[in-house]
Amino acid sequence: MWDTPEEIEADKKTIISILKQTGINVEDEQIRFVDSGNRHKSKYPKNHIAIYTFQYQGVS
Length: 60
Known about the structure:
By secondary structure, the protein is mostly helical. The protein has one helix at about 5-20. The longest helix is centred in the N-terminal third of the chain and has 17 residues, at about 5-20. The model has no long low-confidence stretch (mean pLDDT about 75).
């Protein structure tokens, strides 16, 4: 999904900015990016939020 670590960091900063605008304060280390491929089962523990993003032909 991401080609470089810089792309991951840019997306992280965007998500953190959006969350802060809605009053949710999170730290950088609280966000993990996992490329699970297609058709997967979530392995996130309870009380965690999962944000799914999708990309088609290199466009998010």
